[in-house]
Design brief:
heterodimer, A: 71 residues, alpha+beta, Alpha-Beta Plaits, globular, B: 385 residues, alpha/beta, Aspartate Aminotransferase, domain 1, Aspartate Aminotransferase, domain 2, 2 domains, 7-stranded mixed beta sheet, 3-stranded antiparallel beta sheet, 11 helices, 12 strands, 37% helix
């Protein structure tokens, strides 16, 4: 299944995002953001399924996120 | 009976009534968690993408969430520090490094008094000291009349580490809100004994993790409301935005430069669970009973002075025996197998206010693990000195 990646600003927000998304039934995992996509040393959430719903949930929970990308 | 038994093969070599310095023994669950952390969670959290690092980061986040929930905060506004002193320095200097006026109380520990004094010496910060009296209303008025146009915050303890006197912190928080200034609270002697929350109006909850939260030494918390961004006093690696030289603005990494104390944090998590499972009310009532018994026993001896009045107190009893040095009494108790704290307890302001700057006081501070029988044994020794 296709995965979409949401770049997060920190490991703490990545952890909180995973917590919120998992509790809403969205499968996700935390990975290291590829170096060419960020300013170095970042984390992303790999989301399987409906990424727009995932982004809405992050926004509703005031969890800041950066770009979305596909590998 | 103790509220809890330490058990787990511990050899208690002496009876500890110096739990305001750090609780000992620690709960068995804390000791086990610390051992497991050393054995299993050896990766550097938030520094890599490999499983060892992620596993450690996951455990750190779990404890961060637990602490945040306990104090009514968001996980990202819950920063780990090495102790309460660090948390207070980060909050005070983070708000005050560009000058202005700060108000503290005359009951403060040096963890508040010294950074404030240092700011006044090196940065031109001005400070005022409000007198804490046996009347909460009068105490709040004493703070209020010191507020100036350039006052940037009020910083005080929730409870004195010398006498246990509880300050009217909710009223002081309301006073801060009224004047649109932040309230920094030194919660070292109250966290884990009363329910404290950002909802009380506190903007910065600073606490140790190793006192009444029963975590290991080397742990502390700085919990913020998020309303007042802090300048940093320590910068460095955060595992985020590493290509930039500028310290990241995101909390909690902004305040957590360098490798975290994963082992201590995991132990602190179990300490918080220990407190949550027993309940702060139950722990405090148990310790209050022990304090009342000691006061009742000591009151039979006319030359023992107990430093309490009719105000509200955390479970601490400070006393002196005649004009004898508090160090001499503490030393005699040590010889009899009891750990208590003599001297100034790092709180010269409070001792100046109490009139005990020369003699100091003997401080008795129980934990959930102490018993009435232990208090009676201590009182027996004190009656014979």
């Amino acid at each position: 299944m296709k995965k979409t990646y949401i770049a997060m600003s920190s490991i703490t927000f990545a952890m909180r995002a995973k917590d919120v998304l998992s509790r809403s039934g969205i499968r996700c995992e935390i990975i290291r953001t590829p170096k060419n996509l960020g300013t170095g040393c970042g984390y992303s959430i790999a989301v399987t399924g409906d990424v727009s719903r995932a982004l809405r949930l992050l926004d509703n929970n005031s969890i800041p996120h950066k770009m979305t990308y596909e590998s | 009976m103790p509220l809890e038994t330490a058990s787990g093969g511990m050899d208690i070599i002496m009876i500890n009534f110096d739990n305001s310095a750090t609780t000992f023994p620690k709960p068995q669950s804390v000791r086990r968690a610390v051992a497991a952390a050393v054995e299993k969670y050896g990766g550097n959290p938030g520094r890599s993408g490999h499983e060892l690092s992620m596993l450690a980061a996951s455990k750190v986040y779990e404890v961060r969430s637990l602490a945040a929930e306990m104090f009514g905060a968001l996980p990202e506004n819950t920063a780990f520090t090495v102790n309460c002193t660090f948390a207070l320095n980060m909050a005070i200097k983070g708000l005050m490094q560009y000058g202005g006026h700060i108000i503290i109380s005359n009951m403060e520990h040096n963890a508040v008094a010294r950074p404030v004094y240092e700011l006044s010496r090196s940065r031109g910060t001005e400070y005022s000291i409000a007198e804490v009296t046996d009347s909460d209303e009068e105490t709040v008025k004493n703070f209020e009349k010191l507020i100036r146009k350039d006052t940037r915050c009020i910083c005080c303890c929730i409870a004195s580490n010398v006498t246990g006197r509880v300050l009217p912190f909710r009223k002081l928080a309301a006073l801060c809100r009224e004047h649109s200034i932040p309230f920094i609270a030194d919660c070292a002697q109250a966290a884990g004994l009363i329910d404290l929350s950002l909802d009380d109006g506190i903007d910065f909850i600073c606490t140790s993790g190793h006192k009444s939260l029963y975590g290991p030494t080397g742990t502390g918390l700085l919990i913020t409301s998020g309303k007042y961004p802090l300048s940093t006093i320590i910068e460095g690696g955060t595992g985020t935005s590493s290509a930039r030289l500028e310290q990241p603005s995101e909390m909690p990494e902004r305040l957590e430069s360098g490798t975290l104390n994963t082992v201590g944090i995991i132990g602190l998590g179990e300490g918080i669970r220990f407190v949550r499972n027993l309940g702060t009310d139950k722990i405090r009532k148990h310790e209050d009973q022990l304090c009342r018994r000691l006061i009742e026993r000591l009151s039979r001896r006319k030359d023992i002075q107990i430093y309490r009045d009719n105000a509200l107190y955390m479970p601490i009893v400070s006393f002196n025996v005649g004009n004898e040095s508090s160090h001499v009494i503490a030393s005699a108790l040590n010889d009899a197998g009891f750990a208590v704290r003599g001297g100034l307890q790092c709180a010269a302001l409070a001792h100046n206010a109490l009139g005990t700057i020369e003699q100091g006081t003997v401080r008795f501070s129980p934990s959930a693990f102490n018993t009435m029988k232990q208090v009676d044994l201590l009182a027996d020794v004190l009656m014979s000195i």
